[in-house]
Amino acid sequence: MSNILTYIKNYGELSFDKLTFNELDNLIFSQLAYINFTNIVPNEISKEKFITIKDASDRYYELHQTLDGSIGLLIPDEVLPMLKLLANSKRFSNLKLHGYIQEIDKKETKQFSSLAIEIKENLYYIAFSGTDDTITGWKEDFNMQFMSFVPAQKAAEKYLDKYMKILKGNFILGGHSKGGNLAIYAATKCFSLRKKNIINIYNNDGPGFNKKMLESYSYKKIEDKIIHFVPESSVVGLLFNHTGKLNIVKSSQVGIFQHDAFSWKTSKTEFIECKNLSNESIIINESLKSWVTQMTPEEQKEFINSLFDILESTEATTLTELIFEKFNIFEMIKNSDKKDTQIVGKALVKLLDESRKIIFKNITNKLNKIGE
Questions:
Q1: Where does CATH 3.40.50 sit in the chain?
Q2: How far apart are CA 200 and CA 34, in angstroms?
Q3: Which CATH code for domain 4-276?
């Protein structure tokens, strides 16, 4: 199966002058943002402060010689081999990386990471990282449901504003998962006159927004620049509300595992697309939306806080620690505050009930069509 790694191998000798930036380059850069480039890529936003992808790769492996190839439970293992491929290709090796920032704040419930890739003179791709392995990052994602904005969105807005002030040129924004949401948020909130310098905004299977945001004047100003990609069985990329066309990509994985960008099928310099979302995707997302509407914003907040109070009671800071340190979910619940367990239990019963209703509705609709 061909994917973005195949693309790098087959087209890595072509410069951006010979083969212009395309949707696969976008996905590659969105994956690059998952790598922790602390003390490698300069964190100062400056035209003069940079490191090439080749040098960044060499430096990364110098600092992480004992690395086993994994950088988190939910970050694909292919990310680091991809970095090596990029470093050894003519197309990518000399691209300049600027302004790497990583901010994780448990107290503020913030997980934010971003960097800029200079594609060529006066053309930059600003890559916003999706949710990493931290429990803090996942709690922030859940908070998107009831908060007007989350700290990572404000950090993305600030990052883009600062970058566009310092560097003159045109910008492509993008990210995978939450990173796609951050890219759209930052573009929406940026100074009106700077919006003309944004060429496109790529949301690669990232969640949407509340309706108030989508109806705002500032969002309408950048709406036609947004490009959405989701896999056939998307879950994350259909959360909340979206506008515009969904470009549906074929995947080699099944179900929620299609969120893995390395499972997205490619042909030459583009994705292999299909016409419709899978029935599984439709049922899951209808169930989630129906479930959420059954709860008030206060109930949503209570559920999220209680759920993460239970997880954080283990003192684990990452999902990897939760899984591989063999924390027992039943022990966690047993030892947690009784009110927390009641709130979480009640919400999960509602979710199961809504799922049952949606599945029954879909089966009934199919039977009615057969009978017509």
A1: 4-276
A2: 21
A3: 3.40.50
pLDDT at 308: 80
Q: Using only C-alpha atoms, what is the Rg of the chain?
A: 21
Q: Give me the amino acid identity at 48.
A: E
Partners of 162 in beta bridges: none
Structure tokens at 57: 């790769």
CA angle 9, 10, 13 (to 5 degrees): 85
Q: Per DSSP, which regions of 59-95 are E strands?
A: none
Reported as a single tens digit per residue, the pLDDT across 294-343 is: 888 888 888 888 878 877 777 778 877 776 655 555 566 566 666 766 77
Least confident of 52-66, 204-218, 293-307, 350-364: 350-364
- Residue 107 class from Cβ within 10 Å (0-12 exposed, 13-18 middle, 19+ buried)? exposed
Distances (CA, A) of 275 to 57, 318, 357, 366: 38, 37, 26, 19
